[in-house]
């Protein structure tokens, strides 16, 4: 069995990487998609040959409740239309775990179902929270799935200063889907998936 990494240095490095992404100048981003719920930008990733995506939108709820719906736990599987299964493999502390999850096929199954094993870490950030993660090469791949890989990714959620009951949610995602896929299909899927994430999340928070 593969050994799980020491969580403390992994969490510290992950937080540092996400803070660096969060300080990238606006001029480096190119818009990829815009909806009433969110704007999605992209720039070439430093981690692999694809893109680092940035998504941002205002969500009409308090920070803690939003992050509880995003991080690994009972809520996420109920509302995230892309996620089909989720299991917590190991819990290190209340805010730190390893999860295995699967996603449904996309673009009329041009992108087949994927499986990921991610280290997830949630910590404070300014007046809000940061929930971040990175994939691990851990365990056997399930039959009929392609093992994808999430390079450092995460969600910053902070209350709006003039309206603390609403929050600004900013995400950084760079998913390497792997397998034989046309890059244009991946790019289309990523931008629309991130935009849909906001609309699905907003619906879930209203129920």
UniProtKB/TrEMBL annotation:
Entries under SMART domains matching the protein: START (SM00234)
UniProt-listed GO biological process terms: cholesterol import; cholesterol transport involved in cholesterol storage; intracellular cholesterol transport
One GO term describing the cellular component: endoplasmic reticulum
Coiled-coil stretches noted in the UniProt entry, renumbered to this chain: none
UniProt-recorded Gene Ontology molecular function terms: cholesterol binding; cholesterol transfer activity
START domain sequence ranges: 18-207
One Pfam family recorded for the sequence: START
InterPro entries tied to this protein: StarD4, START-like_dom_sf, START_lipid-bd_dom
Protein name as annotated: START domain-containing protein
């Amino acid at each position: 069995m593969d050994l799980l990494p020491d969580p403390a240095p992994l969490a510290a490095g992950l937080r540092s990487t996400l803070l660096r992404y969060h300080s990238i100048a606006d001029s480096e981003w190119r818009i990829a998609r815009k909806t009433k719920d969110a704007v999605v930008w992209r720039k070439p990733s430093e981690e692999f040959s694809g893109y680092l995506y940035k998504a941002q939108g205002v969500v009409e709820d308090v920070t803690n409740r939003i992050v509880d719906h995003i991080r690994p736990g009972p809520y996420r599987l109920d509302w995230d239309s892309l996620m089909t299964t989720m299991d917590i493999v190991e819990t290190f502390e209340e805010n730190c775990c390893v999860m295995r999850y699967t996603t449904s096929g996309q673009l009329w199954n041009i992108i087949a179902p994927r499986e990921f094993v991610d280290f997830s870490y949630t910590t404070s950030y300014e007046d809000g929270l940061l929930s971040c993660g990175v994939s691990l090469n851990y365990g056997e791949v399930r039959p009929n799935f392609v093992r994808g890989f999430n390079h450092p990714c995460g969600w910053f959620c902070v209350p709006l200063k003039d309206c603390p009951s609403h929050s600004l949610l900013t995400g950084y995602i760079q998913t390497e889907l792997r397998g034989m896929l046309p890059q244009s299909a991946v790019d289309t899927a990523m931008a629309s998936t991130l935009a849909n994430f906001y609309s699905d999340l907003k619906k879930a928070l209203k129920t």
